[in-house]
Predict the structure.
Amino acid sequence: MSKCRWACECGDVAQAGKRLEARANFNRKRILGRAGVSRYECGHTMTPTLLMNTHRFFPAVLISFTLAFAGTANGVRAADVGVGAKPPAKAERLLDGSRQLLEEKWTYWQGPGFKSTLPVKWPLVDDPVDGGKVLMTDDPAAAGGRYGAADLVTKKAYRDFRLHIEFLIMKPGGNSGVYLQNRYEIQVLDGDKTSHGMGAVINETESPYHAYRGVGKWNAYDIVFRAARFQGGERVENAMLTMYFNGIKVHTNQTIRQVWGGANSGLDGGNDGGKGITDTPGGLKLQCEGHDVRYRNAWIQELELKEPQTDF
């Protein structure tokens, strides 16, 4: 890695009163970089052409432009992850704390284990950390951990997408799950560090438990997902995802082989033991298993990923 020519000069910029927008983005812990962009130990990210001149004469607009595009892939900025991440202009909000949006965007998944009834019984409750209203996974039909009895799914189905969702577990052992395409579960389970545990692509990866903030704190999943691909009715490419957990990249271009958990788990769960994936888009699903898990700030942006590449 190259040594930064700015290492002893950054302070001069601030002292001179030239408060460039780039200063706000200097991050010693994150190294951004894509094709044509140089990376430096101090966190500055500059194109080689900009290095030809001293920084004292760099227009702020050029620096801002370079930094704005240095951390992008698949049209997604790696910087826009973690708790509190704001949706891009083209994203669709799925949860905002209002009953109106909940009823507009969500319904029950009426799979073989469905026991509840419409309208949706999940309540909007107080956010115990930041105030406002958030969605709670509390439905009488799922009391005692009845699997698949009262899960919520978006009314709209998706193929490739960028997802952001935040969750908070109120008590030790709290359990829920985020299902991509109503098939592939990203586990939400306090205390479990196995391949069935917190943040795992269930039964496909180990749990990245180190990224979990713990009970009573908000956590965030940021995911780029690419659906399985088919030719002549046959699956030729597995589903794939890249995921950040609380701003830490924990899964990169992770392929997903099957649906786990049987017919009650989601679409295709009962097809050939979960291996019979079909070319049918599915909604985002949130699991209800009788635990107090809360969700907020969920949004999704549809993508069209032609290549098997989800890294961002």
